[in-house]
Amino acid sequence: MANKVLDLEINSLTFRSGLEIAIEEGVTVIVGPNNSGKSTLLRDMVNLLSADPNQPPIPGVVVERVNLTWSGDVQDQLEKLKESLRYYPAGTSEALSGYYESVFKFPNDNVIHESVVNSILKSSTTLGQLAEVYLLHFAAESRTGMVGPDASFDAINGMPSTPLQTMWVNRELEIELSRAVEESFGQGITVNRYAGMNIPLHYGKTSARETAPPLGEEYKEELRGLPLVNEQGDGLRSFIGLVLNILAGSHRLVLLDEPEAFLHPPQARNLGRLLVRLCQTGSRIIVATHSDDIVQGIASSAHESAPVAIHRITRSSSQNHVSSIPTDAVRDLYADPFMRYSSVLDGLFYHGVAVCESFGDCTYYRAVLDSLARTSPHVDIHFTQTGGKQRIASAVRSLRSAAVPVASVVDIDMLSNRTELKQLIDAHGGDIAGFDSRLRSVQAAVVSKGETVPRERLRSRVGPLLELAPKDLSPEEIANVRQVLQARSGWKQMKISGVALLNGDARAAIESIIDDLGALGIFIVPLGELESFHPAIGSRDKMAWLKQVMDERLHENEGVHSSFVEQIREYIAAKQLTPPSSPIP
């Protein structure tokens, strides 16, 4: 890897809203919903850091100012720049024709006067022309064209001007890039150093050993047979272009916009892990991403080599808000196998999340939401499930630690289990003590609604079976006996009838409980359970019920179900538009 020798510290970003976030060494990840300002943030940084240091800075759309410092004095920095750029002192035979003071020459032949460099090195907000030395910015569409072939160059009198030329000189760099490509795509890469005027990059390795010239015929034949990287798919070219430019450069700051572009999830996760490794030498990498896989790869490697910070950016009206997510909290999220392999953490990239009990619940509520009139501003809600009530509280805690607005959507029997209800209320930041007296009143009323099994009914239904000749009961007879013995508990009846089962003080108590839980973000199905929204469909199988609802488009009708989902949307919209303060512990 190229040595990062330039002592620049990007300390923090100041937003137009006045908020300031620190930019630490390592990887900084920017996540959030679409159109929240992630890509704009990176473009603002490029514009601000490239601005003329002698002119008043023009604030960006999202970022007001980039705050930076230099390590050491100006002379130290000048000496370090001489190690990275060609230096032509004034009044010497090395001085460039037409220049009357000392200048630095960039690999692309651009020239900057030493006096300008001195001015930049005294700035605390901009890099000016030196941005191309210290700063590397990758937009998604720019990476696929950075894999050659590049022109050859004078390796004795000249200096590499492209990353591929740098790798032509540096075989260790080729080995490192080849290892990274092989980890993600199954094969490495080979630099063709013998193609005359061009430097092609090939996908794959030769089995024959490269020897000192003249090359062996077997090696030349295999090299000619390797496909060119520039003729491969966008995913491979994007990955190689990105990693090659980071490895070959000495940039102190790397800005990556949507590095997951063109990559499948496994490659995106590998790239996330690789980015953490690539910044071990003190550079800072800032990633704006829509990909849970990129975040997962970065978070899973955070403890191994370099610090990781994650910031979730949102927008209300024209103002941006940022929540800083503790690295340990994110790593813990991805360490939980259920969280890692479910879609819960996709909520980082939505306006908010609704956590349901099952896949069928998610499908139904998402369909109802899609049928509602769109709001302005639009609110994107991610519906996810935890396979039952038991893990909902854990999912809520995880999402709230990431400052994601979250609602829980549960059947009415959640009120029957105080332990699980307490965990959920705690996860939403509430206190069950404010509900206990009402819960006891409701519990007593519901239990009193439970059915019993009268002995006479049992005798009339089971007695005749005992008089029959066969010694053993048939499967059908066993099923009949079970049905007779089966008495509906009060809570079973609540799931069928909902709050309508109760009356008087108990009815008032449960309605107030549902209202107060809704204010916390816990939404109890008032009719009992999902299937009660469309009771005319009698299927006992939820997926069969769901299919019929969808086929008949019943979810598109107005009713209690649409009002219920509207409440969820309004809650998340309100939380989304409230500027987050700090992550939830």
UniProtKB/TrEMBL annotation:
It comes from the Bacteria. Residues 24-314 form the AAA+ ATPase domain. GO terms for molecular function: ATP binding; ATP hydrolysis activity. InterPro entries: AAA+_ATPase (IPR003593), ATPase_AAA_core (IPR003959), Bact_Antivir_Def_Nuclease (IPR051396), P-loop_NTPase (IPR027417). Pfam families: AAA_21 (PF13304). This is Vitamin B12-transporter ATPase. It comes from Occultella aeris. The lineage of its organism: Bacteria, Bacillati, Actinomycetota, Actinomycetes, Micrococcales.
